[in-house]
Amino acid sequence: MSAITQTNPQFAEFRQLFSKARSVLVLTGAGVSAESGVPTFRGAGGLWRQFNVTDLATPSAFARSPSLVWEFYHYRRELMRTKEPNKAHLALAEAEKRFEEEGKHFFILTQNIDGLHRRAGSRNLLEIHGNLFTTRCTSCGFIEENNDSPICEALRNRGLPNENGPEIALKDLPSCRQCQSLVRPHVVWFEESLWPDVLKKIDEEIAQCDLFLVVGTSAIVYPAAAYAMIVARRGIPVAEVNIEKTPSTSISTSTSSICGPKQTIINHGTQLCCRNDSNNIPTIGIGYHLTRNDSETVMLMYNLTLSNVLSDCQRNTNKYCLTNDQAEDIFNQISYVEAIQCADQYVPNLPLMKRNAIIDVAFTSCRALNTFRKMKKALQMKNWIEAAEELKDSRWCIQVRERRCTEDYNCIRDNGNSSN
Question: From its phi and psi, is residue 41 left (phi > 0), alpha (psi between -120 and 50) or beta?
Fold first, then answer.
């Protein structure tokens, strides 16, 4: 998969794929809305008051100060009223319209909560992280669209980035019109998982698409980071439309930023032929150590036999060795997906940073991960510090590179990473 530009030699190929596609699935992110002037509230130049979005978009922040969090979201809601869909939003909406006219399917999964796709006219749309203009009751769970400005009288003229007003009383904050309890923005916060109905719809769209587009997103936050990989594993074309290369470019195996899985062939499978396992037995090791039975099947995919590959490795010749492309293919389609599955079975529904660290451990060996019983218990109890210490003191940390151990230790110990 390559980033698509009109000067890219693959642009003609992309146009051909696009014209032939019967069911297109598009994943969009913050890059799509950048041209509309939508801020991300990240980094020194993008803070709201002294806060980064990661400080406020959490359940714990809302529990501590619903007034502060509502001021932040009120400011974002009012700001979005001044923004308009840009050419990217409009082009995607037009593509959907044309596909429908031709009896074909076009669907957008967006990580954005700004509502600009909907305002541009997109209807086959799933806002996987929610929407700024939707609320959810913290008591009865009632969900509704709310476009009031302000959303409640107490928030009128509040939320400005350079002003700090008095705390707003709980009774004066936005409330549920069914039970009068406090409502919250209906968005996925950091350390929260996607809603089950959203995950189900995503699975349905992934299963039926015959072309997958990644537009304006680095796709390093899970589960969105895995979508291109899953689609590619089915043999479906994946195209990326981004200004810069991202981890999705060429289904990249390069290191992701901020506690993304550090799945690199360089670190984990330097010998494309084979390597010795912990018992000094030659085995195929690319990212995730394949079992002997798995290796047998995988080698057959490339018209190789495991015995030939292993004997070739022992003789230190290259007659039956894997190519770099074959190794990358195995890595992306097998190792990557299996490591994710292994981590999710180990401790389900972990916050993203911690989940990514566990995925990284699983790249070495799922079987080894299951020996971390104390760490598993600590993770289940959300005792992040204890879990991190268990990892740091493990044989795994002794065997891997110090930097990798330290990064995973910090990812588990520190507070989380998500989206809105």
Answer: left
Q: Catalytic pick from 117, 129, 186, 289?
A: 129
**The CATH classification of domain 265-413, taken from the options 3.10.180.10, 1.10.530.40, 2.40.30.60, 3.40.30.10:** 1.10.530.40
pLDDT score of 251 more than 70:
no
pTM above 0.90, yes or no: no
Q: Is 129 a catalytic residue?
A: yes
Residue 334 DSSP class:
I
Per-residue pLDDT band at 45 (split at 50, 70, 90): low
What's the pLDDT score for residue 238?
A: 84
Cβ count near 133 (within 10 Å): 21
Domain parsing of the chain, residue ranges? 1-252, 265-413
Looking at residue 239, what DSSP letter applies? E
d(CA 121, CA 99): 14
Three-class secondary structure of residue 290 per DSSP: coil
Query: Are the CB atoms for 343 and 358 separated by under 8 Å?
Result: yes
1-252 CATH: 3.40.50.1220
Identify the residue with better confidence: 316 or 78: 78
What would the DSSP string read from start to end of 349-366?
A: T--HHHHHHHHHHHHH-H
